[in-house]
Sequence to fold (410 residues):
Amino acid sequence: MKKIILVFALSFSYLGFGQGNTHTQVGGKFEGLAMTPPMGWNSWNTFGTNIDEKLVKETADIMVSSGMAAAGYNYIVLDDGWMAKERDVNGDLVADPVKFPNGMKAVIDYVHGKGLKFGLYNCAGTQTCAGYPGTRGYEYQDARFYAKLGIDFLKYDWCNTQGITAKEAYTTMSNALKTAGKPIVFSLCEWGDNQPWEWGKPVGNLWRISGDIYPCFDCEFKHPENWSSWGFMKIVEMRKDIRKYSGPDHWNDFDMMEVGNEMNDTEDKSHFAMWCMMASPLFAGNDFRKISKETLAILTNKELIAVNQDKLGIQGFKYSAEDGLEVWVKPLSDGNWAVTFLNRSDVAKKINFDWKKHTIKDADFGYEADFNKTVFKLKDLWKNKETGNTKKNFVADIASHDSVTLRLIL
Fold:
């Protein structure tokens, strides 16, 4: 009797295995959704979980009326806190009925009606970072839910993930989104702990490289729970040798911007310039209802945005550093370059850069600028005017934490 049972069990197992292999799972991200770094607004940096329908609609209105949308910012992404504390009887996520009394679909339709795109947040773990229902065990159900809502972007966090591995968890959600059939940009918010740049290209369109940003130039903010947030220059230099992994449709994400949040306008300028130089996704994180004309001018600088959105899609790198004055460079299409002079120090500096003494070589992508062989015109991207060429030294005064970004034009 035991032998018969064993044979039957083995036969059944074999048949089941064979049948399972007749189905090829739809896998991999939706290709081509982020050929340049995505641009938009995210609620977290300013509002945390204090979000509601009114905020979304007002933000969408201002994004259009202020010129932000015309400058390229087209995603509105609601971060943690949009959902109710419990799923419904069918296991579906539910928008918080107090924050969103008309439901999430009405909000999404409003945003779409403005010509903008809409994104939501969830987490690979059992709960989100703020304690709302996570997606673990509900990946395919949640993907169908997002597809039915019609969202365009999913930010997927990494809290409460004990017992699972990042690559497998993000791959599962990527496959679920693909199976659901609605093209959705997939943002891997894994914080860089498991090197997503090494495995993320077929999985997502962008991946975070660090923990959360903090509105300061170069600080570390230590939280009581024993984790840190980082000033923007800390994030810029946190990961070494990963620029080679970034490019069209697979971006290193340096986090949402803090422009307009607590730093001064000089530091905001440098923050924005560095995000553009690093080809990072550009997601504003400030309150548009209180935006100053200075902040708006920084965020909508078309010349800097063009550096970020350059079709070549190459992340910049630090060329030199001396006495607190750094030179960052970024190859651009058509043989052009972007060069940013950044004053990391606490005192003013004088730039006197002799182009002919320098040959810029990009070891990762093979680009080179030899200023003894090629003359470039110089355009100051903050002043929006030409300022000579590389035949003469570039001379300028630069305040503490300030920056000057030039476009070198053939």
Observations:
- The chain has twelve helices and 20 strands.
- Residues 1-23 have pLDDT under 50 and may be disordered.
- The domain at 39-308 is CATH 3.20.20.70 (TIM Barrel).
